[in-house]
């Protein structure tokens, strides 16, 4: 697990190059390893100039390049992650991790310890998660407590020294760069026991452990016999351990109910000291079997001082939490819509938030509306051509609700009305937004009684769970399938 190179690029529209490399770091020793591992498929890391041009081109951020290009914009190149292949000098550099935040592009190239042809699955490349974690750590460091460009320049000037500690020789030890800065600025103190790289300093105070499990469910429902609906759950276990001592040891167990969906694609924090091989080998790429590992999932670790993500996981749950159907039909100048939702009986009927956004973009403002809702309230944003169905905190006892209505639209303004490349004509959709506290779709929970702590004092242990929606769409069943269907395929 190592990185070949890291870049920070300021996106500057209107300039000759479209951007400026504000920071870059290459690791020659890792580059030699890449050449040995990749063999004939090895592509060297380019200089900053060619890399800048290739990356801006791939991200469609060049001012003079807005035309469609098949090798970058074709349907066969739909990108599902922040991983790209850059065309440099007639060869393709892959994988390149890159994302844009606050006019700054964060990029890195992880080491792939095998040949690149055919391309190995991303889940088998451990350096991808390392590279993304480092870039997110750099982003947090640059923009925490930043007030102006002078502060940003100061932090950029500190990066070379910080990466010497946080990522020596391309191997990530601690993605929290503030820890490295504190280590540089602090006075050296003799410790009776060597501090781990991810923990700088020691905690003094009341012992307590907080565990938070957040699951995000994505879903695409089409209401068609020839197109399968898709859904997937991704979970994150966040921890905050306030424990005295240089190297306290903690073991947290995640458990599932009898009918819970097994956790897959598990990625752990570097502070985890050991892990059962059955936990790491469970992958969503493989066909589900009855013998799939279903826990308990034990994570022994030495915690850092700050909050951290103990692990990430995915899961293939048998059904989505809310089933829906959407029918839209044009009759002359009017538009008739029918919406039905059903909460699955296994899902906890206690929402913090539950609402459905029904956009009618690419049309004029809503001038007339007649509707009937069996439950909840409907808010109308006429100028935005948007209906918001506020379902509330509970579904009725029947677990089913419906909405029907007839809409009339005015003349569309040239630049005032919302536009959506997908929501064109009959290709309409509903987006569901909901959040359920003290609940996970997989049933995953942290067993507070099984938490093992090897440190002075008995800590107070608290655990929380919640389920939230993300990209949860119900598509018009009268329409052809939109291209976003591919975004949820494994």
Account of the protein in words:
As part of AP-5, a probable fifth adaptor protein complex it may be involved in endosomal transport. The longest helix is centred in the first third of the chain and has 18 residues, at about 125-145. This protein folds into three domains: about 5-180, 2-Layer Sandwich (Beta-Lactamase), CATH 3.30.450; about 210-215 and about 225-305 and about 440-465, Immunoglobulin-like; about 320-435, Immunoglobulin-like, CATH 2.60.40.1170. A hairpin with a 2-residue loop joins strand 4 (about 90-100) and strand 5 (about 105-110). It is about 15% helix and about 35% strand. A nine-stranded mixed β-sheet has the order 9-11-7-6-22-19-14-17-16. It is built from seven helices and 22 strands. It has about 500 residues and is α+β, with helices and mostly antiparallel strands.
Write a concise keyword list for the protein shown above:
AP2_Mu_C_sf, protein transport, Immunoglobulin-like, disordered C terminus, cytoplasm, endosome, 7 helices, 22 strands, 490 residues, alpha+beta, nine-stranded mixed β-sheet, single chain, five-stranded antiparallel β-sheet, Beta-Lactamase, 3 domains
